Amino acid sequence: MDAIRQIFFDECDEQLALLEEELTTLGDEPEDSEKINTIFRCVHSIKGGAAAFGMEDLVKFSHLFESVLDRFRSGALPVNAESVTTFLKCKDTLFDIVAGFKNGQGAYEVAPETVSELEQYLHSEMSEPEQASEDVDMDDIFGMSFAPVKIEIDVPTEQAFSIVLTVSSAFYERGDDIRNILVALESLGKIQAEIDINSVPLLADILPCENYLTWQLQLTTQKSRADIDEVFEWSGDDLRVDITPVREEETEKPVVPSAPDMEVKADPQVKKAVERKDSASVRVDIQRIDKLVDLIGELVINQGAIQSQMRRNKIHGDSFLGNVVTAQEQLIHELQENVITMRAYPIKTVFQKLGRVVRETARLTEKQVRLVLEGEDTEVDRSILERLSDPLTHMVRNAIDHGIESQEVRAQAGKDPEGLLRLRAFQRSGRIIVEIQDDGAGLDPDRIYEKAIEKKIIERGQRLDREEIYSLIFEPGFSTVVEVTDVSGRGVGMDVVKQSLQQINGRIFINSAKGKGTTFSISLPFTLSVIEGIIFKAEGQDFVIPVNNVSETIIFDTRKAFHIGEGKYGYPYRDGYLSVIYAADLLGCSSNKAGQKICFVIENENEEKMAFIVDKIIDHSRFVVKNLEDNYRKIACFSTATILGDGNVAFILDVEFLFGELLKKRESSLEERV
Fold first, then answer.
1. CA torsion, points 581, 583, 586, 589, in degrees to nearest 10?
2. Among 18, 13, 11, which Cα is nearest to 37's?
3. Residues linked to residue 419 through DSSP beta bridges, in sequence order
4. Cα(first)–Cα(last) distance of the chain, in Å?
5. What is the Cα–Cα distance from 294 to 289, expressed in whole angstroms?
6. Are 662 and 466 contacting, i.e. CB atoms less than 8 angstroms apart?
7. Strand extents, DSSP E, 43-105
8. Contact between 12 and 62 (Cβ < 8 Å)
9. Beta strands 638-643 and 626-627, pairing class
10. Which end of the chain has the smaller Cβ count within 10 Å, N or C?
């Protein structure tokens, strides 16, 4: 029973996610009746499953919510912004009730105001019919006399229906019970039921996961065929239903179609269910997947140990053992790719939640904002996706509050009174890029600079380029808002964004044009568990640099390097020159730099290049990433670490740190900064 309950809760999570997705866009297309039908089915499905487990509070509230939705679905009430807000509150209440039962709570008390709002919709009308005035003499209307006329009102008559139910195994796997169908039909009228057991095989041939029973029902009711169909509309493709009216001359027992007839006259719904088996999914506890990822990581480390021993014993790669090890390495690589993909989820799950954030923030700031989503199917590792929601929420709120102007200001500037906010996700160079773009006022570098001086973040007269000025908005306590509001002004939002992104090895870049808008670009790794990199040696130690940041590798000629000043060096490269960073300087060593012969031409997300000088390249491979802060402590210049095949630890270079800290800050030497 615990396993079945867990399946029910998983189904609830899916239905609640779909419910929020449809509610978020319901206000944009109120005429789309299919959205209301989908919302109704979600609530109905939750109610049906809750009844099977005796969750009375969930059933009671779902029924009330479902009754209100039915009035909107029938067109008795119009959909507007107020009703959508109420629906979102009800969705949150459903989420809380489900979470309460999931955590073992026996009961849940719904907020009275939420129930009151629903009951108002339940008892309200679109327009009250005008009643005739009591002062009007009905005999004097147009000079005509009226006499009462006897009329006959048709009393609803009972009708019998023959219903045959064929259930698939998937119906039970998702936590449903045929009892729920029988109880719902019994509420419509009088029901007679028999079970056909002709298809049950011998005991030795019975498969535990298969269903062999067919229910034969005869329902006598005053309800219409549409009312009967409504009972089955949430069942999906896992339940085959054959409904036929029964004539008076027919027997009360419903005729069950024979097995050959059922095969010849195939139901399209059953056919569809069979076709979907090819893409069926299996629910697996996420902790098992995480454990599998860890085991694959250990397998990669062990593979590195084998290769290390081969080099130590001078076993060539073209030998028989070398070929076997190479083939095994390829298999491990494919296995690792597939396991990592299992932990990848579409970023759509985060984007959908932001739709509600946009709606609420626009309402608080009294602005009109249109949200456009692109690349919702882009997949991101679950560990990254979980930490991405808060930064994006802060940035969306700031874009609406600070970036997009009021309707009056936009009209004066010749812009559309409705502001545009675009969220876009895509892959580039092995990383995930998320862009938050608005068509607002843009960032004002002068105002940011003056505000930073006022907050004593920088000193007056300090020379900063445009990118450095933009980066000041991420400093703790920085805000350009004069008055603190419920939305922003406390100077903590963008600071939280920067810290959250650093924890997942993410970087953020700003591109803004005054009066035209701002684009924030977030660069994220596809996964935090493995990287592809080049292992190199510097000052007798092994280090790793991500291969995505390496543009090319060249032989370094010390005679061509030239001194720029303030501890900086340059090196000619193609039609220009590169800033040079020596690995010896990075490690704080004062060795002879003439011995360093290898030059990595590395680049960051902005495609800026730099020359990084090392002693020797050892190998190119994939490395299992280990968090430095969790296992040791944070070390400048290095983002994470890995375990090599010989058991030693190698630090993984933080390329963005080199560009951000060692090149842009001009007032300190390399040794002081490191």
1. -120
2. 18
3. 369
4. 58
5. 9
6. no
7. none
8. no
9. antiparallel
10. N
Tokens of 352: 């959908």
Contacting residues for 652 by C-beta, under 8 A, at least 6 apart: 531, 533, 543, 544, 545, 546, 623, 625, 638, 639, 640, 641, 642
Q: Answer for the pair 532, 547: CB distance below 8 angstroms, yes or no.
A: yes
Cβ atoms of 596 and 583 closer than 8 Å: yes
Distance CA 329, CA 311 (A): 15
Amino acid at 238: D
Residue type, 283: R
Q: Computed from CA positions of residues 279, 284, 290, 294, in that sequence, does the dihedral angle turn out positive or negative?
A: negative
Find out whether 185 and 216 touch, Cβ atoms under 8 Å.
Answer: no
Q: Are 339 and 292 in contact (CB under 8 A)?
A: yes
- This prediction's pTM: 0.57
Alpha helices by DSSP H, 222-314: 225-232, 259-264, 268-275, 286-312
| Of residues 361, 419, 430, the one with CA closest to residue 394 | 361
26-58 per-position pLDDT tens digit? 766 545 677 888 888 888 888 877 877 778 888
Alpha-carbon distance of 167 to 210, in angstroms, equals: 10
The residues near 254 (Cβ < 8 Å, ≥ 6 apart) are 162, 163, 164, 216, 217, 218, 244, 246
Q: Among 527, 534, 529, 528, which residue's Cα sits nearest to residue 548? A: 534
Q: How far is it, in rounded angstroms, from Cα 231 to Cα 553?
A: 68
In the sheet with 239-246, reading across from the earlier edge strand, the strands are: 189-196, 214-221, 159-167, 239-246
What digits encode the pLDDT tens for the residues 625-664? Answer: 877 777 777 777 787 888 887 778 888 888 877 776 555 5
Structure tokens belonging to residue 519: 């684009």
What the block records as the tokens of 1 is: 């029973």
pLDDT class of 528 with cuts at 50, 70, 90 = low
Question: What's the CA gap between 501 and 486, in Å, rounded?
Answer: 24
Q: What is the H or E stretch that residue 219 is in?
A: strand 214-221
Residue 270 has what pLDDT? 33
Place of tokens 């990669």: 300
> Residue type at 125?
E
Question: Alpha carbon 424 to chain centroid distance?
Answer: 13
* DSSP states of 370-419: EEEEE-TT-EEEHHHHHTTHHHHHHHHHHIIIIISPPHHHHHHTT--SSE
Contact predicate 602/658, CB 8 Å: yes
8-state DSSP, 155: P
Contact status, residue 512 vs residue 443, Cβ threshold 8 Å: yes
Q: Which residue has the tokens 């030693």?
A: 648
DSSP state of 635: B
Q: Indicate the SS3 state at residue 35.
A: helix
Give strand pairing partners of 371: 421
- Distances from the Cα of 348 to the Cαs of 28, 35, 281, 354, 674, in angstroms? 18, 18, 19, 10, 40
Angle between helices 2-26 and 348-365 (to 10 degrees): 50
Higher pLDDT, 396 or 484: 396
Q: What is residue 596's predicted lDDT score, i.e. its pLDDT?
A: 66
Helix, strand, coil tally for the chain in percent (to 5): 45, 25, 30
